[in-house]
Amino acid sequence: MPETNRQVLLKRRPNGMPVPEDFAIVDAKLPEPDDGQVLLRGIYLSLDPYMRGRISGQRSYARPTELGEVIEGRVVGQVMRSRHPDFREGDIALGGYGWQTYSAVDGKGLIKLDAAAAPISTALGILGMPGLTAYAGLKTIGQPKAGETVVISAASGAVGAVAGQLAKREGCRVVGIAGGADKCAYVTGGLGFDACLDHHGELAGALDAACPNGIDVYFENVGGAVQRAVYPRLNDFGRMIMCGMIAEYNDADPRPGPSLVAAVRKRLKIQGFIVSDHAALRPEYLAMAAPLVRSGALKYREDIVDGIDNAPQAFIGLLQGRNFGKLIVRLGDDPTRS
Amino acid sequence: MPETNRQVLLKRRPNGMPVPEDFAIVDAKLPEPDDGQVLLRGIYLSLDPYMRGRISGQRSYARPTELGEVIEGRVVGQVMRSRHPDFREGDIALGGYGWQTYSAVDGKGLIKLDAAAAPISTALGILGMPGLTAYAGLKTIGQPKAGETVVISAASGAVGAVAGQLAKREGCRVVGIAGGADKCAYVTGGLGFDACLDHHGELAGALDAACPNGIDVYFENVGGAVQRAVYPRLNDFGRMIMCGMIAEYNDADPRPGPSLVAAVRKRLKIQGFIVSDHAALRPEYLAMAAPLVRSGALKYREDIVDGIDNAPQAFIGLLQGRNFGKLIVRLGDDPTRS
Description:
Two copies of one chain form a homodimer.
Chain A: E1 4-10, E2 23-29, E3 37-46, H1 51-54, E4 74-82, E5 92-96, E6 102-106, E7 111-112, H2 129-142, E8 149-153, H3 158-169, E9 173-178, H4 181-190, E10 195-198, H5 203-210, E11 215-220, H6 224-230, E12 234-242, H7 261-265, E13 269-272, H8 282-295, E14 302-306, H9 311-319, E15 326-330
Parallel strand pairs in A: 8-9, 8-11, 9-10, 11-12, 12-13, 14-15
Antiparallel strand pairs in A: 1-2, 3-4, 3-6, 3-15, 4-5, 5-7
């Protein structure tokens, strides 16, 4: 057991795209668990687009990270010492404790993981928050029906990959949008989407060709030019699942959006959601998805970066679309992988 | 019985705001009803914002009016000759037959009106399409709850006046937006809204003052600067009932809308609708609203213009916000009013 806890703190609020100097990497004292807590050794840290909002200081659905604080994040870790009756040394658990290698966390906020059921890193991706995000957006807003056309941006990403596979299982035509030929090849060949368009190319004509019957559901993860290409192609009664707009998170001022006259004329539904509002769907999602992950019917890809010191650069890459699959930082050894 | 049928035809498609020269007023031969039809003498013609879309020729939810055709519109009229078993001479009925003084119409598309139940002109307003529009938008999209703040643009108009009164009955704080002091005085004093803001003034600060708890539901009839002032004041889980955007109907190119980043962050729902999709709600709306209209608990105001020759100018005034209440053209004598 080391004597120090390595942490990434927010040093200053990013101005536009974050840079490494916005973060400080420090060694703190190893924390002591209080009664009811456990000492968790981090194995995997999840990096996700929502974190850009937390470090911006803007009023939002969650408390922003303050300057000098450890940046928030979900971690899969191993219990090193337990002062909570439900956890024993060696247990693997999921919790939200931030960009650091160790943490003393309340046992009641931890979820014990069964390493035999699925690789423990999936609790951060396809069987975690991103998977549930895809499920909740489709179920509560998009409601795709067999035969409809569903377009998904950031299609190779942690949320988009699940959303597309779920829509395929509903019998939809599913068209992904991703950055680059490699990602597009994975989205069609690996994930089974019907088509995938490279957003570096000309999207309008490519969408027309790939969506001959227009677009019924758009799972929005990106915003910007991708949104401007998709929006005018939405059919009557089209639904926009507003999950994220990562292309615009670094803007100082909000960009204008599409004219809403079309929303009236075509009876569009444009609806935002946050996965934490839909925690109640977690059991039904896992009951459906976990067996499919085990059987290989639901596919996923992880982009694992080694070492907490690389977290800031990996996060910047995420905002630039440089990750390929669910972005995870390995904080320490995974005892379940041999 | 005259020998001619006076009609307003679409002469050319308007370029921006329509002008009288876009319309042609002609005398046609009195039509002969076929078997199953009746000859209807028009009494009241409804003028409504949706007509701007029909004469523009754009692809939309309804077939556009072609050049040289009679412009479409709902009419309350009197049966002069009947070749349909359900109608007799003298009956009062509501149908959609356009800007003309006479029409031979299929009996199956007509709704017989009971002049004793409510003034027959209300079948074009509070007990007609505009009233049902207000009801359907609130019921299927806005779903306001007691204590919430509801903002309604074009608040003295045919739809807005009903929407606000219905939201008040749900126990909401209701704030109208209208053009000018007279309309605002009517919206608060006559219709009982909690406040009404003049959109000719500075809206942002006025909205802050009138909506100290933010805005939960926005019933959108206007678009433009009013939308830009309301949108940033929507609360988390706010709903935008996209009913119309009359301020933008004469634009050659669509104007940009608001940034949708806020739709994600605040989990907004922005949803368009067209009343004809909700015809099934008509019986329940009338069962609720007709007694309230008769008792005076639901108030309405009509702006009645005399003579079909004045229809084009009245319609232009509607697009400019010059009407005050439900705009109706009196095509001929109302035998139910003494």
